[in-house]
Amino acid sequence: MGSVGPFWSAKAPGTQTVDPEVLARQAVDRMRLSGPDIQSPRADGTYVVGMPMWLHVGQSPTTFGPNSATAAAGGVQVTATAKVTEIKWSMGDGSAITCRGPGAAYKPAYGKQASPDCGHRYRRTSAGQDGKKFTVAATSTWQVDWNGAGQQGQFTEVRTAQVRVSVGELQALG
After folding, report:
1. Could you list the residue range(s) of the whole structural domain that residue 116 is in?
2. How many CB atoms lie within 10 A of CB 40?
3. Structural contact between residues 166 and 46, judged by C-beta atoms closer than 8 angstroms
4. Residue 111 belongs to some domain of the structure
5. What does DSSP say about strands 96-99 and 56-58: parallel, antiparallel, or unpaired?
């Protein structure tokens, strides 16, 4: 038999390699990301066919970002940062809107003005819907950037929130 010379390994015998992306996902779990904090439309509001509805979400680290967390294992540390890049609104009437930001908050002084960045107009009432309300779903796409252990990467997370809204018609009395 031949002789065996010196042997060197960067990995100690019996240890496991830590996947930095797995740690990044653990960091995201610590962030407790949730669906959008829907500010408008409000569940207690009554909306009118043909009138502009402003779509708007509140911004916090858990509902819009940015949010950062770190996870470590086996001598490897990874930091992940998450932020919402878009919100897709499903309006319950078959319409869908994609907004790149949180939307603008409506103020009564705006009157019948359409939202400058994220809005919708219902073309029919919610009277024929279950509970006489449309179910509005807002789905946020979170972009997660991570780095650690000499590596970096990116992945997305998706979260959804819902609200039910009543949409009616104005009737002119004569």
Report:
1. 20-167
2. 21
3. yes
4. yes
5. unpaired
Distance between CA atoms of 16 and 83, rounded to whole angstroms? Answer: 31
Interatomic CA distance for residues 107 and 128, integer angstroms: 30
Amino acid 17: pLDDT: 85
pTM of the entire predicted model: 0.85
Residue 63 lies in a domain: yes
pLDDT single digits (tens) 117-138: 999 999 999 999 999 999 999 9
Q: Mean pLDDT over all residues of the chain?
A: 91
Long-range contacts from 95-100, C-beta under 8 angstroms, 24+ separation: 95/120, 97/55, 99/55
Look at strands 67-73 and 76-90 and give their pairing.
antiparallel
Per the structure, how many domains does the chain have? 1
